[in-house]
Amino acid sequence: MRLVSLTRAATHVRAASTTATIAAALKVGDALRPRRRRFTEDDVAAYAGVSGDRNPVHLDDAFARGTGGFQRGRVVHGMLVASLFPALIASHFPGAVYASQSLKFAAPVHVGDEVVAQVQALHIKATGGRHIVKFATKCFMDDEETLAIDGEAMAFLPTLQLSAEAIE
After folding, report:
1. 30, burial (CB in 10 Å: exposed 0-12, middle 13-18, buried 19+)
2. pLDDT band, very low/low/confident/very high, at 23 (cuts 50, 70, 90)
């Protein structure tokens, strides 16, 4: 296994990476391959419909700019942005079960902003045939300069081996 430093080395010590023939196993300190996403108006509308969260700061640009106080307009639902974390973990570890998530919303994400979700293993405990892993979860904007979401997650992983799809 080869470890590759991330650009934000202070935040994420190392990234799990492999060659095509060697399977990588998650270790404390490893960061999963980040996930980038730009949220669209359609994403926000679909989430509002599914969740029932029709707060006008998400759906009405004039309201968001005026009463909401968001100069850049509509804000993406925080939980929609946070949904990148379980998706990122599950894409690396099929069969993962998300157990908990704590979140601090540090800055608003606006419709059209590109975000980068990052996940790093903080603690790993084997239990039975599964592994309980505590992850640091962060979401950045503006080329990874502005922290939008900070938190921690717990997930049950069936294995510590990275999926074939996760290998670069």
Report:
1. buried
2. low
166 vs 20, residue with greater confidence:
166
Please name which of 144, 89, 137, 135 lies closest in space to residue 116, comparing C-alpha atoms: 144
Place of tokens 């998300």: 98
Residue 12 CB partners (closer than 8 Å, separation 6+):
6, 31, 118, 120
Q: What is the pLDDT of residues 136-155, one digit of tens each?
A: 999 999 878 999 999 999 99
| Matching residue, tokens 């379980």 | 86
Q: How far apart are CA 41 and CA 140, in angstroms?
A: 20
pTM of structure: 0.83
Q: Could you tell me the CATH number of the domain that includes residue 161?
A: 3.10.129.10
CA distance 65 to 75: 10
Supply the range of the domain harboring residue 30: 2-39+77-166
